[in-house]
Structures are given as C-alpha cells and as structure tokens.
Design goal:
- InterPro entries: RNA_pol_sigma-70-like (IPR039425), RNA_pol_sigma-70_dom (IPR014284), RNA_pol_sigma70_r2 (IPR007627), RNA_pol_sigma_r2 (IPR013325), WH-like_DNA-bd_sf (IPR036388).
- With 193 residues, the chain is mainly alpha-helical.
- The protein folds into two domains: 128 residues, RNA polymerase sigma factor, region 2, helix turn helix motif (Rna Polymerase Sigma Factor, Chain: A, Orthogonal Bundle); 48 residues.
- The C terminus is likely disordered.
Length: 193
C-alpha cells in the first residue's frame, strides 16, 4: 500500500540519530513527548506507567534509529506505532499478573487490551486529522450541533459540513480495524522490544 511521502525533515532526523547526535534525540523528544505520553496514558491509564513507556520508546529510538523506514510513512506515525505497541505490551504484562491473581478469563483480559488499544488509535487519528475535519466532528459530537448548525459555525455550506463529518467519521472508523505492522517494541523476541 503506497503512503504519502514523509516530510524531508524526518529523513534528516533519522540520519542525525544514526550518527549519534544527542541534540537530535532532544529535538525529537520535544516534538513527540506529549504525543507518546498521552497515547501511553490512554492505553495504560496510569501516569507512572506512561512515563516509563515514554522513556522506553525514546530509548528504543536512540538505540535503533535505523528501524524507522521513511518509505513506510512519517516519523510521527512511526513513533505513535512504537508507543502503541509498547503500551499494549505493558498492558498485557500488567493484565496477565492481575488475571493470575484475580482469576480473570483470558478473553476478558484481551477485550480490555483491545478496547484500550482502539481508544488510543482513535485519539491519535483525531489529533492527526486535518483541522477542518476535527473541528466539524468536535462541533457535531461534543457540542451536539447538527450538520446545518455545524456548517453555520464553520462558515461553510451544509454540503461541505456533511462532507467533513463523513470523512472524519470514515477516518475514525479505521481505529477499530487497524492492525499494527510487525517489528519494533513489544514484538516477538521475548523482551519489550
């Protein structure tokens, strides 16, 4: 599946990280730390756990800068994917311990993990979508405006408001069905990465 070309700066950032430039990691952290922390918190529901995942994700990036492939998408998407994988991995570990202690059914644990993962993907999709779509969804679903009121508030035609709402909802609908690509944090090798 073809993806949009990532920003030029993404490739340069990867090259700087590969050369071991600590300043590049600092810039990357400044750029994405709030995204990483909020996604991890959304999955784990715990501030300390989200802090740990944030450190782990940036540690992984520092140690594995070549794991990012600019041909696969933007650096932001890659960082979000790493975060989601690591947060889900941590949630699975935590839930396995709780299930062992409480006797919870594996299906119940997996449903809880899937719900948290879907919510995190939905949050990421909303924050990443173009502002006109996000604004239309916010007016319609948070402020309870119908499409005519949304159109008036946005200063667009009713048809344009419907189009924005439809596109925004189509993007959000992918949150439930999206699968993570293989590799990276939480995958396979028995460790967190």
């Amino acid at each position: 599946m073809a993806r949009d070309a990532p920003p030029r700066g993404d490739r340069r950032m990867q090259q700087r990280l590969a050369r071991g430039e600590a300043a590049a990691l600092g810039e990357l952290y400044d750029r994405f730390a709030s995204l990483v922390h909020s996604l991890a918190h959304r999955v784990l529901g715990d501030e300390d756990a989200a802090d740990r995942v944030t450190r782990e994700v940036f540690g992984y990036i520092w140690e594995n800068p070549d794991a990012y492939d600019p041909k696969q998408g933007s650096l932001r998407s890659w960082v979000a994917t790493l975060t989601q994988r690591q947060a889900v991995h941590r949630l699975r570990q935590n839930e396995a311990v709780l299930a062992r202690d409480d006797g919870a059914a594996p299906a119940e644990v997996e449903r809880k993990i899937q719900d948290a993962s879907t919510a995190a993907r939905a949050d990421y999709i909303v924050t990443s979508m173009p502002a006109p779509l996000r604004d239309a969804l916010e007016l319609a679903y948070i402020h309870r405006r119908d499409y005519c009121q949304t159109a008036a508030d946005l200063g667009v035609t009713a048809d344009e408001a419907r189009r924005r709402l439809r596109l925004g909802l189509q993007l959000l609908s992918t949150a439930h069905h999206q699968k993570l690509p293989p590799g990276g944090p939480g995958e396979g090798n028995g460790g967190p990465w």
